[in-house]
Amino acid sequence: MNIKSFKSYTTPAPNFPEISNCKNIKELKQIHAKLIKTAKIHDPLITAELVKCSALSLGDLNYGRLLFYRMNQPNPFSYNTIIRAISEVEDDPLEALSIFTLMLCDDFISPNNFTFPSVLKACAKLANLGVGKQVHAHVTKLGLEDDDFVVSNLLRMYVMCGVMDDAHVLFSRRILHDDDNVNGVSKRREDGDVVLRNVMVDGYVKLGDLGAARQLFDKMPKRSVVSWNGMIAGYAQRGWFRDAIEIFREMQLVDENVKPNYVTLVSILPAISHMGALELGKWIHLYAERNDIEIDDVLGSALVDMYSKCGSVEKAIQVFESLPRKNTITWNAIINGLATHGRATESIHYFSMMLDMGIEPSDVTYIGVLSACSHGGKVSEGKMFFDHMIRVAGFKPRIEHYGCMVDLLGRNGLLRDAEELVGKMPMKPDAVIYKSLLGACKMHSDIEMGRRVAKHLMEIAPSDSGSYVALSNMYASLEDWDGVTEVRLLMKNRDIRKDPGCSWIEIDGAVHEFLVEDDSHPHVKEIRLMLGEISNKLQSIGYQPNTKHVLLNVDEEAKQSALFYHSEKIAVAFGLISTSSQTPLRVVKNLRICDDCHSSIKMISKLYSRKIIVRDRKRFHHFEDGSCSCNDYW
Ligand code: ZN
Ligand code: ZN
Hints:
The protein is mainly α.
């Protein structure tokens, strides 16, 4: 038989309402029995419909498979159905490809445009370029290179195999060019083009070539929500949070036909969390509620995380409590969120609630609860949870868990125990572990151990400026100025520069970023005036700047002024002049907050009667009426 005579099969099989209306597999089996009795089962169209109903509609793939393999002469429709069900429903690309091979060996039929999308999806999942190219050859041979669905799946196969050059050849052959007569082109073709461009953008994003992705994106004559989501997710996953937020705003400004959907919200929330952009985060929450976007466990977890990382832990709890379904990630978000806000008791409470409810903790859950113990000074609880993790939950501790334990012991003055634990770790300790131990030596003035730890730190992270800063801070706190000078010289000789401190604050939905001694902001004059006013007020109440940690060999006055232009102080000053008197200020800093900024922001919160919330690299500080939620313990 030639292909032509089978063209009728390329359209779905004729309707058999009795079969397609089946509500469950029991009903289907009854019909199946009747068909056997009446011998109608020999009609390939009827069996094909049975295969479709069981494998796709009712999701009983095994029954569908059984029916399929019993067919004397399966038609293309039943082949397509079973390949699709296996490739998409059961996610078994190898079996899907082996049935496709059977189909190729069948002399009486030939694959059609409904066959290839599923087959190509299977190739894409396997990322098997060799097989993919063979399938491409069949597509060409059968003249299906003009079919939109076939081509978009072909393109996706190349993209998933990471061969963007081949993808590009196919792509540029298909899309409309600027010199094409666009007016004469059907809407269908134009929509098909958007799909192809989205696949290409997605491919560049996956390979991490955001420049190429953006170039293609910018040139798109028309964009769908998928196009925007691709760029937002690309930026957010690569840690380009600011760009993610910018393009999200652009989406709303320039493209009125496109509205953010569930995927957009899930993609943008991590960027908002990172930037601490609470106003935007609230807007997203409201948007989901107003547009009937389901706040399921995934979106809900992202919201809980966002509220807690943006400093609004009450709201995080409220959202958490309101979620009808919570998964392990949701619990992790609240446990970890409470921990970074120093609310150790509540964090531990949620952890035990999680266990009571029979929710399986992950190893990340333990990082949350251990850091709660660390911030809350709960040594015995911490030890207990560490033990629980190994013995009861059966997790092998990762370096992060050891990091929490070293921090917990070190902070609480159990320096020997902490050092001993570092020596017993099954893996090589990293710079984070040594820095935390060094911080503990500084806090508890153990210079001897400090030197020992510093030596290790210099060995494993000789080019990490943070190591030098931690060491210098330790010497400074012990007023060992020779030590400070020594570190400074070492930094100079090795050409190591301190990471620039950077803070940002969100005002009216826009994020303003400040560096140390930053004078690039349009309101620099007003900010300087405010900083001057703060400085005078602080001095008038007898506040002495803590200049110990200034890594500069300059006179006292210059040190004081260097401290005064730390980025977090600039951000606070800008916040004070840009908001009404009751508004809490929320500042995010990329590094740890320094001693002097900590004590002066405490004073500022009292002098200006403002709540000031600072998130540094490690935790939150809630400043109010002259004191901080961390009780000066961070
Ligand atoms: Zn500072
Ligand atoms: Zn604090």
